[in-house]
Amino acid sequence: MSYQLLNDPFQNKGTAFTTAERRSLGLEAYCRLTFKRLINRLSKLTLSFKRKQRP
Question: What are the sequence ranges of the domains in the chain?
Answer without folding.
Answer: 2-53
